[in-house]
């Protein structure tokens, strides 16, 4: 009798195609990996392409902790037009000649949107307002406000400014930008807010995520490539790349796996999740420091 090959535990770094929701990619991966246990570490808008981190089998327990890491994007912001969704997917709501906007004004606007800021997410987003998705309220024509949230924009750089003419004949400016930001940041909201600050409106016309935490585009695979050869980053390698590593001896490993709260070295205080490994290099658990002890977040050993 042939033994069924078990799907390995680990991460799959997908180069998401445009037009797919993150859930579409998860559904595809369930078919490719032949398992229901697939999840993603943070969504990517349907229009956007690039790095989407999926967890397979036991690695799904890592995803909530990975979702909190820094992200990096390349995108194009069109100044001179607003849309309902703050990106190219939505209907046009206004057009304004942006040909007189100077590079100095753009740089000043970007400076205001850098560092620690309060951001109002796009109304057509998955955020829940009183238990109902924001996009559902927006599509039903409801008037509502989304509270601003703190986000950090570590870097917001303009690489190129291009004069263009929109389909409706409006002179617009297309900015090619890169953004490094905290989890929960909406790049299309940055485009909207930059356009508003400059008085001409703005929306996002293209977006590519190039990094999620330590996982970059060069290690990502398209769905077609994964269909041909499923490339899974082993769970131990994934944990080492994403979290501080704490190597323990056999005695501590046994105690940890038996639910004992170990004393944790001071160097891990305030670092968030820490990956614990035994002397054989087996990934045992994710823990975090709490009052000098290691509080278990997820056990893998």
From TrEMBL:
Domain of life: Bacteria
Pseudouridine synthase II N-terminal domain boundaries: 31-187
Gene name linked to the record: truB
InterPro entries xrefs: PsdUridine_synth_cat_dom_sf (IPR020103), PsdUridine_synth_N (IPR002501), PUA-like_sf (IPR015947), PUA_sf (IPR036974), tRNA_psdUridine_synth_fam2_C (IPR015225), tRNA_psdUridine_synth_TruB (IPR014780), TruB_C (IPR032819)
Entry EC number(s): 5.4.99.25
SUPFAM superfamilies: Pseudouridine synthase (SSF55120), PUA domain-like (SSF88697)
Keyword Repeat: no
Keywords recorded for this protein, A-Z: Isomerase, tRNA processing
Residue positions of the active site: 45 (nucleophile)
Family stated for the protein in its record: Belongs to the pseudouridine synthase TruB family. Type 1 subfamily.
Function recorded in the entry: Responsible for synthesis of pseudouridine from uracil-55 in the psi GC loop of transfer RNAs.
Domain tRNA pseudouridine synthase II TruB subfamily 2 C-terminal positions: 243-300
NCBIfam families: TruB
Name listed for the protein in its UniProt record: tRNA pseudouridine synthase B
Matching Gene3D superfamilies: Pseudouridine synthase, PUA domain
Catalytic activity entry: uridine(55) in tRNA = pseudouridine(55) in tRNA
Keyword check for Isomerase: yes
Domain tRNA pseudouridylate synthase B C-terminal: 188-230
One BP term from GO: mRNA pseudouridine synthesis
UniProt source species: Streptomyces fagopyri
Gene Ontology molecular function: RNA binding; tRNA pseudouridine(55) synthase activity
């Amino acid at each position: 009798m042939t033994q069924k090959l078990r799907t390995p535990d680990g991460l799959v770094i997908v180069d998401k195609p445009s037009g797919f929701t993150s859930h579409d990619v998860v559904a595809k991966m369930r078919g490719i990996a032949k398992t229901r246990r697939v999840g993603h570490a943070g969504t990517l808008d349907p229009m956007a392409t690039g790095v989407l981190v999926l967890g397979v089998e036991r690695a799904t327990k890592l995803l909530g902790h990975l979702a909190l890491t820094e992200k990096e994007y390349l995108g194009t912001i069109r100044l001179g037009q607003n849309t309902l969704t703050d990106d190219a997917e939505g209907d046009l709501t206004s057009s304004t000649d942006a040909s007189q906007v100077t590079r100095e004004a753009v740089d000043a606007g970007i400076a205001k949107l850098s560092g620690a800021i309060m951001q109002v997410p796009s109304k057509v987003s998955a955020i829940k307002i009183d238990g109902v998705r924001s996009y559902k309220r927006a599509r039903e024509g409801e008037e509502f406000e989304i509270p601003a949230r703190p986000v950090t924009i570590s870097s917001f750089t303009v690489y190129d400014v291009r004069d263009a003419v929109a389909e409706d004949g409006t002179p617009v400016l297309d900015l090619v930008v890169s953004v490094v930001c905290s989890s929960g940041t909406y790049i299309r909201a940055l485009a909207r807010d930059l356009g508003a600050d400059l008085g001409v409106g703005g929306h996002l016309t293209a977006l590519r995520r190039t990094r999620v935490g330590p996982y970059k585009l060069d290690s990502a695979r398209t769905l077609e490539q994964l269909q041909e050869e499923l490339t899974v980053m082993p769970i131990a390698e994934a944990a080492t790349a994403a979290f501080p590593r704490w190597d323990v001896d056999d005695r501590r490993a046994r105690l940890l796996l038996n639910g004992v709260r170990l004393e944790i070295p001071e160097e891990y205080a305030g670092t968030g999740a820490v990956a614990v490994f035994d002397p054989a290099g087996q990934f045992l658990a994710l823990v975090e420091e709490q009052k000098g002890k290691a509080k278990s977040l997820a056990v893998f050993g």
